[in-house]
Design goal:
The chain is α/β, with parallel strands linked by helices and 258 residues long. 48% of the residues lie in helices and 12% in strands. It holds the Pfam family Polysacc_deac_1.
């Protein structure tokens, strides 16, 4: 479990040292409380920042890239707005990566088929995208991933190997499920926050100011404001001579299992 395991081992070692000291001198309880708070803070931070690779390895960019390539990703579809996103991508001759929710695929099968038919990449974004996903057992996480994979295989014949956890949350349960499914966890290093901000200019400037080679942009194909920002972003990237590529090409990973 990468950094999480190291932190736990370190904290246990410190507790043992403090406990040993109690045989020789008084050790104030505040030291134990402080250690617990440090552990809790690091664990919470690691759970909500996928870029830290705290519980499981996540690909969030192509480090040290000098080629002006960038990946554009969309979460939470297929949605009625996905059609407008696809129209823009087609107009600019750009291929993107869509992390799809299983329930949304069931609700919008024709849009999902269009994503595939137009040459875009699809990845697993769980089945329910539950707000409680971070509290699911490893078995429930496993069910969410495998159900969506089976659904996509049924509709397209593709067996997805890319997974983006809802909200970018990771924890030991999610890590355990991923170790069984063998998916590649895909994060991001350019977060648009297009589901948080209402002002389109704020969203656009936030993304534009973070653009750099090897980056992975996170957007959502679920609102008109995101569509409007996307159009401006595509024009900007074209002006800056960026090539927009799918995640598998940027990271040199297999998106589907043969």
């Amino acid at each position: 479990m990468l950094k999480h395991k190291k932190i736990v081992l370190f904290c246990v070692a410190v507790v043992l040292v403090l406990f040993t000291f109690t045989f020789f001198t008084a050790v104030h309880w505040i030291f134990f409380l402080l250690l617990f708070l440090i552990w809790l803070g690091l664990t919470t931070w690691g759970s909500f920042d996928i870029r830290l690779n705290y519980f499981t390895k996540a690909y969030c960019s192509k480090p040290n890239s000098i080629s002006k390539e960038i990946a554009l990703t969309f979460d939470d579809g297929p949605h009625e707005m996905t059609e407008k996103v696809l129209d823009l991508l087609k107009l600019f001759n750009v291929k993107a990566t869509f992390f799809c929710i299983g329930k949304q695929i069931e609700n919008n099968p024709q849009l999902f088929k269009r994503i595939i038919s137009e040459g875009h990449l699809v990845g697993n974004h769980s089945f329910s995208h539950s707000e409680n996903f971070g509290f699911f057992s490893s078995q429930n996480v496993l069910n969410e991933i495998t159900t969506t994979n089976k659904l996509v295989q049924q509709w397209s014949g593709l067996n997805m190997k890319l997974f983006r956890p809802p909200f970018g949350v990771t924890n030991p349960m999610i890590a355990k499920a991923i170790s069984e499914t063998k998916h590649h966890v895909i994060g991001w290093n350019i977060r648009s926050l297009d589901t948080v901000y209402e002002d389109e200019n704020t969203i656009f400037e936030r993304v534009k100011n973070k653009i750099k080679p090897g980056g992975i942009i996170l957007m959502h194909d679920t609102s008109q404001k995101s569509v409007n920002v996307l159009e401006r972003l595509l024009l900007f990237l074209k002006t800056e001579n960026y090539s927009i590529v799918s995640v598998d090409k940027l990271l040199n990973l297999s998106a589907y299992e043969n």
